[in-house]
């Protein structure tokens, strides 16, 4: 918690309103010596005097103490990146203690609580043992319920519902997750048309910049949804090789058209990795190697360019939007942990078929060298 500034604030407020210590003492019914001790930090006002003090200066008690129960958007972003770095470099439980202290200090700052949930969701697997991981997931559920019921924000509450379902899935409470999601994600709901309506409204109001920006955001999110859901569909159809290969070709065609490897490489990496495993199970070594080359190029590009969200020649209005997000353009996990995850993917025994190739050895050495550089 930031240091409370009661003494300094009393002095500043007195000077601001040109009030003497005698005037303030008379109003509160205390001695001038008491006021002097408060201002020098030698003692504190009795609790019964705090409402009177705040009322006298026409401020809240929080303002009197210099306490800010709400954290600014920029401060939230800064705290998240600092804690993400801590999770990558410090003992897990030490960082959990730090996040809980921050949460208690700003327990009514729901945007911050939302980011703490995201932080825990992206790092709980670092906890030692399944029991501890489950405990953290259950704590996330409690925080989500608080945001849903008390935040008063439909946006934050909506995000909390989605994250609640994510946790339920991790806890293998699949029916609960289905119940949580079915109503809000019903494809028949008119909310599916909201993006197009907003774009049309901007056009009718001659707000061309906003219309273009909203259109680009909507297209990007639809693209990412298509690739993410398409990847799931591809994994569902592994037992039907011909159909699975058709799905993969269409996904990769979309990725090529939108240059997804450069625009959003982490999504492409997921598709390519699934494709490698698919071709290995089909004993198609040549095809598996071709997918591995794409996977490798995508990993190297993502790390060499810095793991940041960005636009391109098509999505020309997105950089400003990314900067306006709660975390800005930064990833939700520290770069060190992202590289470590990529190395774990390479250690999958299923990749034995392609261990002999130079492309595999080169990528592994590149990632190992890069994670060392991050450590230093």
Summarize the structure.
Helix content is 72%, strand content 0%.
What does this structure look like?
The chain has helices spanning 6-16, 21-28, 32-40, 50-56, 61-65, 73-89, 92-105, 110-123, 130-150, 154-170, 174-184, 194-204, 208-236, 241-257, 260-263, 265-281, 285-304, 318-324, 335-346, 358-375. The chain is an all-alpha fold. It folds into 3 domains: 6-65, 434 Repressor (Amino-terminal Domain); 73-186, Serine Threonine Protein Phosphatase 5, Tetratricopeptide repeat (Alpha Horseshoe); 212-375, no CATH class. The longest helix has 29 residues, at 208-236. The radius of gyration is 27 Å and the shape is elongated. 23% of the residues are buried.
pLDDT < 50 runs, ≥5 residues: none
Rg, nearest Å: 27 Å
Shape: elongated
Biggest pleated-sheet summary: none
- By secondary-structure content and strand pairing, the structural class works out as mainly alpha
Total strand count, please? 0
| Percent range of helical residues | over 70%
Distance, first to last CA? 30 Å
* SSE pattern: HHHHHHHHHHHHHHHHHHHH
Q: What is the overall pLDDT average? A: 90
How many distinct domains? 3
Could you tell me the strand content as a percent range?
Answer: under 5%
């Amino acid at each position: 918690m930031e240091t409370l500034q009661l003494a300094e604030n009393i002095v500043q407020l007195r000077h601001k309103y040109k009030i003497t210590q005698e005037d303030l003492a008379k109003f509160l019914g205390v001695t001038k010596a008491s006021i002097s001790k408060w201002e020098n930090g030698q003692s504190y006002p009795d609790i019964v005097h705090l409402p009177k003090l705040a009322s006298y200066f026409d401020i809240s008690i929080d303002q009197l103490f210099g306490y800010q129960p709400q954290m600014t958007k920029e401060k939230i972003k800064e705290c998240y990146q600092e804690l993400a770095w801590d999770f990558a470099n410090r003992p897990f439980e030490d960082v959990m203690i730090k996040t809980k202290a921050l949460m208690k200090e700003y327990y009514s700052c729901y945007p911050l609580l939302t980011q703490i949930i995201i932080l825990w969701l992206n790092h709980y697997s670092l906890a030692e043992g399944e029991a501890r991981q489950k405990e953290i997931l259950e704590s996330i559920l409690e925080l989500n319920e608080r945001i849903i019921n008390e935040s008063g924000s439909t946006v934050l509450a909506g995000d909390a519902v989605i994250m609640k379902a994510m946790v339920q899935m991790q806890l293998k409470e699949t029916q609960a997750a289905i119940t949580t999601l079915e109503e809000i994600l019903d494809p028949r709901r008119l909310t599916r048309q909201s993006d197009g309506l907003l774009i049309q409204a901007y056009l009718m109001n001659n707000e061309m910049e906003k219309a273009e920006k909203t259109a680009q955001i909507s297209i990007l999110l639809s693209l990412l949804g298509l690739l993410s859901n398409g990847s799931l569909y591809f994994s569902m159809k592994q037992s039907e090789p011909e159909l699975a290969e058709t799905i993969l070709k269409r996904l990769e065609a979309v990725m090529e058209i939108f240059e997804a490897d450069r625009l959003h490489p982490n999504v492409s990496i997921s598709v390519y990795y699934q494709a490698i495993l698919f071709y290995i199970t089909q004993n198609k070594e040549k095809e598996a190697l071709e997918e591995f080359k794409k996977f490798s190029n995508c990993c190297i590009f993502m790390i060499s360019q810095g793991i940041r969200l960005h636009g391109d020649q098509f999505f020309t209005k997105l950089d400003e939007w990314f900067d306006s997000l709660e975390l800005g353009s930064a990833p939700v996990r520290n770069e060190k942990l992202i590289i470590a995850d990529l190395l774990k993917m390479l250690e999958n025994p299923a990749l034995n078929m392609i261990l002999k190739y130079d492309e595999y050895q080169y990528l592994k050495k590149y990632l190992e060298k890069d994670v060392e550089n991050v450590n230093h």
